[in-house]
Amino acid sequence: MAGALSKGRWSECNERFRGREDKRRMAKAHHSERSAYTTTERLVSAGLKSTVASVRILDRVSGTHTAVTPDTVFNALAAGVCSRGSVYRTLAELHRAGLLDLYRLGNGSAAYAPHDDRLRAIVTCTCCGCTKIIEDPQPGECVQDAARRMGFRLDPAPLYLNGTCTRCQARRIPSARTTYAKRRRAVKAE
Fold first, then answer.
1. CATH T-level fold of 117-190
2. Which 8-state DSSP code applies to residue 107?
3. DSSP H helical segments within 77-151, as ranges?
């Protein structure tokens, strides 16, 4: 039999396979110690292939301490690494694998940030739609405490808040809600 493995060769393959499985289990066990292992190991432990594009994209997003849009990631990557569509697909895949958090911004776009178990607050301007992510842990801690007092345990998720940004405040542009409320009062008065 030309394609058959000898008994010694078969046990050698099994040992190598068991060694890889042990490494994967160890990587999953030490998942909280992110700085202790490389991007490639993080991808493999999440069950993803370690491609050049996925490694560079995960490095780029992990290197920032705030959420980034797919267009920002695409523009930051070296030309020729991957297409814009590949960036979008890879970011979605990394989110599904639990390596990134997805945030829906006020203008309908998405932003990605490294996954952690913090509760982040996202503030959206009701006038222009600009969005900022509050990286300060206090809003999350305050909400967690309030939920705990009511007997709830919150899952990590973004907290969406609406307001008016400083630029729109300076230009004195009424927010969409204020304009709607004024129109509604005018209709009731008629």
1. Dna Ligase; domain 1 (3.30.1490)
2. T
3. 84-96, 138-149
Number of residues that make up the chain = 190
Buried b (16+ CB within 10 A) or exposed e, 102-140: bbebbeeeebbbbbeeebbbbbbbbbbeebbbeeeeeeb
> For residues 71 and 80, what is the distance between their CA atoms, to the nearest angstrom?
15
* Helix axis angle, 52-63 to 84-96, nearest 10°: 70
The structural domains of the chain, with segments of one domain joined by +, span 36-116, 117-190
- 128-172 residue pLDDT tens: 777 777 777 777 788 888 889 999 988 777 788 888 888 888 887
Q: What is the CATH number of domain 36-116?
A: 1.10.10.10
Smallest Cα–Cα separation from 52: which of 24, 75, 73, 80? 80
Task: Give 50-76 pLDDT, tens digit per residue.
Answer: 888 888 899 888 887 677 888 889 988
Rg (CA), the chain: 24
